[in-house]
Amino acid sequence: MVIWYNMKFFQKGVIILTHIEKATDFLMQEFHCSQALTGAFAEEFGYNLKNVMKISTCFGGGMHRGEVCGCITAATMIFGMAFGLYEPQDKKLESFGYKNADEFFIVFVRRWEERRSAKRFLAEISQSRRSLS
Fold first, then answer.
1. Tens-place pLDDT, residues 14-25
2. Full DSSP string of 26-72
3. What pTM did the predictor assign?
Protein backbone atom coordinates (compact mmCIF):
# COMPACT_ATOMS: atom_id res chain seq x y z
CA MET A 1 0.00 0.00 0.00
CA VAL A 2 1.24 3.48 -0.80
CA ILE A 3 1.37 5.85 2.15
CA TRP A 4 2.08 9.48 1.36
CA TYR A 5 1.18 11.25 4.56
CA ASN A 6 4.36 10.56 6.51
CA MET A 7 6.56 12.94 4.50
CA LYS A 8 6.78 16.68 3.97
CA PHE A 9 7.29 17.75 0.42
CA PHE A 10 9.07 20.89 -0.66
CA GLN A 11 8.25 22.68 -3.87
CA LYS A 12 10.15 25.83 -4.86
CA GLY A 13 10.95 26.61 -1.22
CA VAL A 14 7.33 26.28 -0.07
CA ILE A 15 6.39 23.63 2.47
CA ILE A 16 3.43 21.59 1.33
CA LEU A 17 1.41 20.27 4.25
CA THR A 18 1.30 16.55 4.89
CA HIS A 19 -2.05 14.80 4.88
CA ILE A 20 -2.02 14.61 8.67
CA GLU A 21 -1.39 18.34 8.93
CA LYS A 22 -4.13 19.11 6.43
CA ALA A 23 -6.61 16.85 8.22
CA THR A 24 -5.68 18.38 11.57
CA ASP A 25 -6.22 21.84 10.14
CA PHE A 26 -9.70 20.86 8.93
CA LEU A 27 -10.51 19.38 12.34
CA MET A 28 -9.40 22.61 14.00
CA GLN A 29 -11.88 24.41 11.74
CA GLU A 30 -14.54 22.06 13.18
CA PHE A 31 -15.15 19.89 10.13
CA HIS A 32 -16.19 16.29 10.77
CA CYS A 33 -13.51 13.60 10.80
CA SER A 34 -14.78 12.23 7.48
CA GLN A 35 -14.49 15.67 5.92
CA ALA A 36 -11.05 16.29 7.42
CA LEU A 37 -9.59 13.12 5.94
CA THR A 38 -11.21 13.26 2.53
CA GLY A 39 -10.44 16.97 2.33
CA ALA A 40 -6.77 16.31 3.04
CA PHE A 41 -6.55 14.10 -0.05
CA ALA A 42 -9.08 15.75 -2.40
CA GLU A 43 -6.94 18.10 -4.43
CA GLU A 44 -4.10 15.60 -4.74
CA PHE A 45 -6.45 13.32 -6.65
CA GLY A 46 -7.91 16.16 -8.71
CA TYR A 47 -11.18 16.59 -6.84
CA ASN A 48 -12.76 19.91 -5.98
CA LEU A 49 -12.37 20.47 -2.23
CA LYS A 50 -15.82 22.03 -1.83
CA ASN A 51 -17.52 19.05 -3.49
CA VAL A 52 -15.55 16.51 -1.46
CA MET A 53 -16.39 18.31 1.78
CA LYS A 54 -20.07 18.32 0.85
CA ILE A 55 -20.08 14.65 -0.16
CA SER A 56 -18.34 13.52 3.03
CA THR A 57 -20.47 15.63 5.42
CA CYS A 58 -23.02 13.00 6.41
CA PHE A 59 -20.37 10.37 7.09
CA GLY A 60 -19.24 12.20 10.24
CA GLY A 61 -20.30 10.93 13.66
CA GLY A 62 -20.49 7.35 12.47
CA MET A 63 -22.69 8.21 9.53
CA HIS A 64 -24.59 10.45 11.93
CA ARG A 65 -25.71 7.31 13.77
CA GLY A 66 -22.69 6.42 15.90
CA GLU A 67 -21.99 3.42 13.70
CA VAL A 68 -18.89 3.14 11.49
CA CYS A 69 -16.47 5.96 12.33
CA GLY A 70 -16.22 8.74 9.78
CA CYS A 71 -12.48 8.11 9.59
CA ILE A 72 -13.14 4.61 8.28
CA THR A 73 -15.69 5.71 5.72
CA ALA A 74 -13.32 8.53 4.71
CA ALA A 75 -10.50 6.02 4.23
CA THR A 76 -12.81 4.00 1.99
CA MET A 77 -13.63 7.13 -0.03
CA ILE A 78 -9.92 7.94 -0.32
CA PHE A 79 -9.25 4.47 -1.71
CA GLY A 80 -11.99 5.22 -4.22
CA MET A 81 -10.29 8.51 -5.12
CA ALA A 82 -6.98 6.73 -5.60
CA PHE A 83 -8.09 3.48 -7.22
CA GLY A 84 -11.71 4.04 -8.18
CA LEU A 85 -12.87 3.17 -11.63
CA TYR A 86 -14.94 4.98 -14.16
CA GLU A 87 -15.16 2.15 -16.65
CA PRO A 88 -17.00 -0.82 -15.07
CA GLN A 89 -14.93 -3.17 -17.21
CA ASP A 90 -11.71 -2.13 -15.45
CA LYS A 91 -11.76 -5.07 -13.05
CA LYS A 92 -7.99 -4.98 -12.57
CA LEU A 93 -8.12 -1.47 -11.08
CA GLU A 94 -11.18 -2.37 -9.02
CA SER A 95 -9.43 -5.43 -7.65
CA PHE A 96 -6.32 -3.41 -6.84
CA GLY A 97 -8.41 -0.85 -4.94
CA TYR A 98 -10.21 -3.54 -2.97
CA LYS A 99 -6.90 -5.22 -2.12
CA ASN A 100 -5.48 -1.98 -0.73
CA ALA A 101 -8.67 -1.23 1.21
CA ASP A 102 -8.70 -4.77 2.64
CA GLU A 103 -5.09 -4.40 3.80
CA PHE A 104 -5.97 -1.12 5.48
CA PHE A 105 -8.97 -2.63 7.28
CA ILE A 106 -6.95 -5.62 8.49
CA VAL A 107 -4.26 -3.36 9.96
CA PHE A 108 -6.84 -0.98 11.41
CA VAL A 109 -8.81 -3.74 13.12
CA ARG A 110 -5.63 -5.32 14.52
CA ARG A 111 -4.42 -2.00 15.92
CA TRP A 112 -7.86 -1.18 17.30
CA GLU A 113 -8.06 -4.54 19.08
CA GLU A 114 -4.54 -4.14 20.47
CA ARG A 115 -5.43 -0.71 21.76
CA ARG A 116 -8.67 -1.94 23.35
CA SER A 117 -6.80 -4.86 24.92
CA ALA A 118 -4.14 -2.51 26.27
CA LYS A 119 -6.79 -0.20 27.74
CA ARG A 120 -8.58 -3.17 29.30
CA PHE A 121 -5.31 -4.49 30.72
CA LEU A 122 -4.40 -1.11 32.23
CA ALA A 123 -7.89 -0.79 33.73
CA GLU A 124 -7.52 -4.23 35.32
CA ILE A 125 -4.14 -3.30 36.80
CA SER A 126 -5.57 -0.06 38.12
CA GLN A 127 -8.53 -1.92 39.66
CA SER A 128 -6.31 -4.53 41.28
CA ARG A 129 -4.07 -1.82 42.76
CA ARG A 130 -7.11 -0.12 44.26
CA SER A 131 -8.32 -3.36 45.79
CA LEU A 132 -4.89 -3.94 47.37
CA SER A 133 -4.94 -0.52 49.02
1. 455 688 888 999
2. HHHTT--HHHHHHHHHHGGGT--HHHHHHHHGGGHHIIIIISS-HHH
3. 0.69
